Amino acid sequence: MRKIFTLLAVVAALTASAQSKPFSSNGFFDNWSVGVNLGGTSAVHNIGFGPYYSNDKTFTNGPINARSFWQRARFAGGLEIAKQWSPIFASVINGQADVNTSNSNTFIDRWSVSYMNRINLTNLIFGYNGKPRFFELQAQAGIGMASWIAPESKDSHYFFTRLGLSLDFNLDKARAWTLSVKPAIVYNLDEELYQGNRRRATGNDHIYRGATFNINDAELEVMAGLTYHFKNANGEHYFTAVREYDQDEVDALNARINSLRGQLDGKDGQINALNAEIADLRAKLNDCMNKPAQIQYVDRPVTVTQTQTVNQSTNRLTNNVHFRIGKSTIDASQVPNVERVAVYLKKHPNATVTVRGYASKDGNVEANKMLAEARAQAVKTMLVNKYKIAANRINAVGCGISEAYDELEWNRVSECIIEVSED
Questions:
Q1: What DSSP line would sit under 126-147, residue for residue?
Q2: CB 396 within 8 A of CB 383
Q3: Residue range 80-137, pLDDT digits in tens
């Protein structure tokens, strides 16, 4: 008995130490699974291994060992809970019940509970790459206790050991479900396992032997299982490989991180300074946008200067408003020139203004005469509508083509002549 436990412990230690790579989600509550097993089992004696077996639980009304291997077969089913400690090694708790084939009235006539260790031979030999393969082969071995329920049974409790394989097919893409075929040989270690002896009666004498793996005390078991693997902390249903780093690489990465943090702190200061500068520029821009426009217009020098005296009590002032080519609309840049005339007229209620419109000699003569008239009228209209100057104080006259300036484009003007009578 101690040899069995020693063998299981050695196998567990070897498989646990066989892992050379670290894997994520290796906590206690990770990598658990639950499964359902259905299949059959039958005693293997009377297949040529031994003609006589005095403890045949399957015997009916006929002579001992009268039934064949297939006639002794019985349906079995159960549940198992497994904990995968590594991609190679797992621990399993298995509970199982057998359907009655004897002449008793119980539907279930035997139950068993066992503990097993399971070794993934595929991962042990070929290595684990971070995800289960579609097909994997596992070996399993364990020990358990069984009990007969049939009322005619005496000494109903006994220990057994199970040795077998598990042919696993990982069905879905997430590797959450596994379909398995599990052949095994189950050895009956007899009811006197506590003392480490197995008793066999021969007449009035008793021969004591230690518990042995005798094929005549065994059953062949074939089960089909469906297992669900619970989701782990890593979000998967299995171990995922973790990249290993040596200490030098970790130290270099930490140094790089600290350097980047220092640069980031410096960038924060620069960003704050730039944000302050942006806020200042925005404030200045807002002030400029809300400040009234100050437009200064500078007239070109007039090449032809005429001095005219109306009378001794009259002053004469001249102001020009310039227009674009072929246009009679007053641009925003020329509004201050019109406003200057309006301000003067408001300050001098006795003053009148004569607006003379001109055009350059480029283009059609008749069209230019009409354009000159329109320019004079545009100035008058603004003085009346915008600045509320009485229309009878304004005389708008189209004077046709002008050549007052050296450059022809500067001759597109409306000349405002203001006459002020002294009181």
A1: H---SS--SEEEEEEEEEEEEE
A2: no
A3: 999 999 999 999 999 999 887 766 667 888 889 999 999 999 999 998 888 899 999 9
* CA 351 and chain centroid, separation: 81
Neighbouring C-beta atoms of residue 421, cutoff 10 Å: 13
In residues, how long is the chain? Answer: 423
DSSP 182-233: EEEEEEE--TTGGGTEEEEEETTEEEEEE----GGGEEEEEEEEEEEEPP-T
Distance CA 169, CA 177 (A): 9
What burial class does residue 245 get, using C-beta atoms within 10 Å of its C-beta: 0-12 exposed, 13-18 middle, 19+ buried?
exposed
The helix (run of H) or strand (run of E) holding residue 254 is helix 247-290
> Is the C-alpha dihedral spanning 80, 84, 88, 92 positive or negative?
negative
**Cβ–Cβ under 8 Å, residues 414 and 323:** yes
Q: What are the backbone angles phi and psi of residue 350, rounded to the nearest 5°?
A: -90, -5
Strand order in the sheet with 352-359: 314-322, 413-421, 352-359, 394-401
User: How does DSSP assign 263-290, residue by residue?
Assistant: HHHHHHHHHHHHHHHHHHHHHHHHHHHH
Burial 130-167 (b: 16+ CB within 10 A, else e): eebbeebbbebbbbbebebbbeeeeebebbbbbebebe
Residue 423 CB contacts under 8 Å (≥ 6 apart), including other chains = 350
Least Cα distance to 320 among 399, 385, 415, 205 occurs for: 415
Measured CA to CA, the distance from residue 423 to residue 314 in angstroms comes to: 9
The Cα diameter of the chain in Å comes to 171
Residues whose CB is less than 8 angstroms from the CB of residue 84 and which lie 6 or more positions away in sequence, other chains included? 31, 32, 33, 90, 229, 239
* Backbone φ, ψ for residue 169 (5° rounding): -120, 110
The bridge status of strand 32-43 relative to strand 74-84 is antiparallel
Cα distance between residue 162 and residue 140, in whole Å: 8
226 burial via Cβ count (<10 Å: 0-12, 13-18, 19+): middle
Bridge partners, residue 229, by sequence: 33
Which helix (H) or strand (E) element contains residue 336?
helix 335-347
pLDDT in tens, 240-288: 877 666 788 888 889 899 888 888 877 877 888 889 889 988 888 887 7
Rounded CA-CA distance 62/124 in Å is 49
